[in-house]
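Quick one:
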Amino acid sequence: MYQQILDNLLTKNDLETLQDEVSILETTNYKFGDDGLDEVLNKNVRFEVSEAIKNDLRGNDITISHYVKQLQKKLDDYQSIELVVPFEPTRKNMEKISDWIRNNVSDKIVINYRYNMYLIGGAVIEVAGEYRNFSLSKLVDDFFDEHTDKVEEIISK
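Output:
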C-alpha cells in the first residue's frame, strides 16, 4: 500500500504537491466523510495519484481517514537535499539520480534541483546544513588559487 504513490516522489516539488493533495483529502474527509471522496479525487487530485489511492482502497477494509493519516506519516519521514547541477535535468535525469540515491543512501529522500551553468560540470550538494562542492568550477578555481604565480608568469611571457 502507498508504494505506487511514493515511487513517483523524485523532487521536493513532487513531495509538496502530494502533501497539498493529502491535505485536501484530509479536509474533505473531515467535512463530508467517505461520501465526498470520489468528487475530490476526480477534481482536486492528480489523475495518477487519484488512481493509486483508489487502487489502494479497493478491496481493503480501511477508511479514507486512516489511509490519509498513514500516507501523511510516510510523507513526513522524507528529507530533502539540495542538488545544484550545471544543466536543467529532464525527468529521466531526475529518475536516474533518484534511483541511485534510493539504492545507495535512502528511499526517503527527495531532491530540490537548482540549475547553475557556471559549475561547468559536477554538482554541489547540501544535506542537513552540510555543503559539499564537487563541481569542475571549484577544481579550476582551486587550481588557479594554488598556481597563481605560475599562471601569471606564463601569461606575461
